Amino acid sequence: MASHIVGYPRMGPKRELKFALESFWDGKSSADDLKKVAADLRSSIWKQMAHVGIKYIPSNTFSYYDQMLDTTAMLGAVPPRYDWNGGEIGFDTYFSMARGNASVPAMEMTKWFDTNYHFIVPELGPEVNFSYASHKAVDEYKEAKALGVDTVPVLIGPVSYLLLSKPAKGVEKSFPLLCLLGKILPIYKKVISELKAAGASWIQFDEPTLVLDLDSHKLQAFTDAYAELESTLSGLNVLIETYFANIPTEAYKTLTTLKGVTALGFDLVRGTKTVDLIKSHFPKGKYLFAGVVDGRNIWANDLAASLNILNDLEAVAGRDKLVVSTSCSLLHTAVDLVNETKLDQEIKSWLAFAAQKVVEVNALAKALAGHKDEAFFSASAAAQASRKCSPRVTNEAVQKAAAAVNDSDHRRATNVSARLDAQQKKLNLPILPTTTIGSFPQTIELRRVRREYKANKISEQDYIKAIKEEIKKVVELQEELDIDVLVHGEPERNDMVEYFGEQLSGFAFTVNGWVQSYGSRCVKPPIIYGDVSRPKPMTVFWSSTAQSMTARPMKGMLTGPVTILNWSFVRNDQPRHETCYQIALAIKDEVEDLEKAGINVIQIDEAALREGLPLRKSEQAFYLDWAVHSFRITNCGVQDTTQIHTHMCYSNFNDIIHSIIDMDADVITIENSRSDEKLLSVFREGVKYGAGIGPGVYDIHSPRIPSTEEIADRINKMLAVLETNILWVNPDCGLKTRKYAEVKPALKNMVAAAKLLRTELASAK
């Protein structure tokens, strides 16, 4: 019985790639240094999987930034603004597309389906001259083969690539991207031919868009594409991999009849209903890659339950055609549990990171083949039983409180218009008020202070003194720049979710449980293992301290319940919405304590609300109902004069705008600039928004500094569709990943643009 891994984390167990990338971007190391680190990581990954016994090992899932961007490079689909002149795409062009440069902005970045991973959105149109411009897939296959590892090269499938793209600037929004299929398939054919010539016997196409609600025209594109590739694919075993949700019935019919395809891969963790489709009909003679090991969470597999599913599927596909696999790429989970030397031993026994999941896949494959490791399976059963009966998991008072939330819709007593009037009387803000999203640059010195405090190398008194000094510096800078509503910069926080999870019950934390979010940006998701409550105030001291340093309004900064949920590894033994309600009640306590402490503006970030939207439309209304309700729970008890902000970023919000309105926040700040002001189209189409709104005026994920004129132009575009009295001026997102040398001039230009337009608006009256 064979085993397969869809994909593997790239950053390395100690974030080796992150540090190599940042060193290269800062000019401290060479391209050869970066390539050496990458080659060492790839070699380690391939050899590790081969040592465990995995038969189908992926290659070309490694990336310096993003696999979709790698595909854009392979196809030579470089937007003209990057001045690429043909030939093999190098780091300069590649990273300019990803991050922008001094003269041009980056390409749009958005969430990969319903994950916290981001991809670079291709910009396509009828004028794009596609060419074979990156041989990475072939080069990495040859690299693995030279190490003695025969891999399965992985490509983003041609149809999913186009469906996840967008029309380039200047191209009609209605441009049918699928009409470009005939232009990109010749390049796919060249790649396939080179892989065959190099000795590849398998190839994997990731076509995750097949789990979406696609119309017949889009489904036909899959049929057409693989019919066109059939002759080139001849002689290869071809795997089409899908993941993240149940595959719709019509898509399943399309997939199972594709020409030239010999193997089909499914996520059977998030796609439990797909099992029924497979049992009802699976094409004879094809391989079934059964994704029974969860690639998106860190809980140890229930091996006995998975083996039962596999036994059922073996009866359908046949023993020689069933392959045990992960549900999706392991990119979305942490790397290796071995590195967690400080984690509670009982909780640790309940977990499996990427390295352990590889072992689980192989153990299941061996068991199916009649070589069951009884000791391994017994240990698995003991861990499952321990987790089910552990007293640390359940808190009856929390369960009771969360169960009662459906007795109310938790709305504030007055409407947003009346609240905004009351808040303006108290805050006395100018039109087009300026603010930032929360965090300020995290300097090397600041990180050192936090690290030494955690390691007990400095006293709590010294730590508080250092953090207060950093807050004072941030407050004085904002006053100097003349920003209207201030933030304290969050110097006490390494990560917005981790910080709160550390102070809530029911959470556990790792030392090296890093997961890639985008580029070199890694996050360390907390683990929610039990019922959640707030033992004591979490942010009141720091917010009060910051407010005491200024007469201007100081925002209290919180992370919302839906974002804490979606950016954590969540317990899988109860419905997600129940856990979310528990977190909401904990944040509600914090909001009310901030208000009592004199904080008049409180921001409750829901950056990940859109991210958690189910991929299938039939499941979306239920999610939005409990997600929006959870947000309202947090602030339903505050006075009209307390202004509640929220923030969202890097997702497509247009399709949930009515749910955003239903959140009933007083002000929402929302990513806008990097996505070509896509958000504004909602308001052009007539959606009425009565609360305060701050569409981001510049992209903070690029080192580029926008001019005053550029920002003023963006604000004018907003004023064309939004009322002057509700518009706020702010960056797209928090500033923690930037340097002060970038932040100061960018914010100076932002404030100057707001003042310029205030003057123009006043003179126009």
TrEMBL record:
It catalyses: 5-methyltetrahydropteroyltri-L-glutamate + L-homocysteine = tetrahydropteroyltri-L-glutamate + L-methionine. Zn(2+) 2 binds at residues 658, 662. Keywords: Amino-acid biosynthesis, Metal-binding, Methionine biosynthesis, Methyltransferase, Transferase, Zinc. 5-methyltetrahydropteroyltri-L-glutamate binds at residues 18, 116, 521-522, 567. Residues 432-755 form the Cobalamin-independent methionine synthase MetE C-terminal/archaeal domain. Binds 2 Zn(2+) ions per subunit. GO terms for biological process: methylation. L-methionine binds at residues 437-439, 490, 605. Zn(2+) 1 binds at residues 647, 649, 671, 733. This is 5-methyltetrahydropteroyltriglutamate--homocysteine S-methyltransferase. The lineage of its organism: Eukaryota, Viridiplantae, Streptophyta, Embryophyta, Tracheophyta.
